[in-house]
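Progress report, Aim 2. The chain analyzed during this reporting quarter is listed below.
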Amino acid sequence: MNKQGTLFYVMGASGAGKDSLLQAIRTLYPKQLLVAHRYITRSSQAGGENHIELSIEEFTQRQQQGLFAMSWQANGFYYALGKEVELWLSLGLDVVVNGSRAYLEQAMMDFGHRVVPIIVDVSAEVLEARLYARGRETPEQIVDRLARAEYYRGQCPNSGFVLDNSGSLQQTIEQFAKEYRQYQDSLQQLSCYSMSRDEDILQ
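Predicted structure tokens for the chain:
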């Protein structure tokens, strides 16, 4: 049986620090984890993540052609992850994606046990300060983002884990490294158990 890859589904409020964390993962785990680029109807010059900019027409066309594995709308933009994600997982590769909190339920329906939800969380005070500091949103938009962040706070499935990014990025990376090691160890134990069961059956 071919090993199926794991989908690490990273979520969090805009301004929580997902982009910095994903860039760190891309740098620190080049052999173990593939970080997928998102397709967004937002200017690539807007700052933040390294995404692929599409016009609304381009996005709609690709969506109709079935080229997206996941797609959603939030904060006035359209977002998607390409079908390459499904290919990588089928090849047994572990993939990290920048997902939507609202889309998590659908992702877990589509990818099942392969999904490991990761929430990047910060306090409301830290999030507000970061949003104002980056200067990308109006005060009204910041209020909306803070309300959305509060709505989703604490909603992490038991199969996932939360990273507190209120402090330094290094501290968050250390949290991720610990959780990732524990996840790998649990897979190894499960694999050893399965092999033992198979040997018992053959005997």
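The helical segments are 18-28, 56-64, 84-90, 104-111, 124-134, 139-152, 169-202. The longest strand covers residues 68-74. These observations will guide the mutagenesis work planned for the next reporting period.
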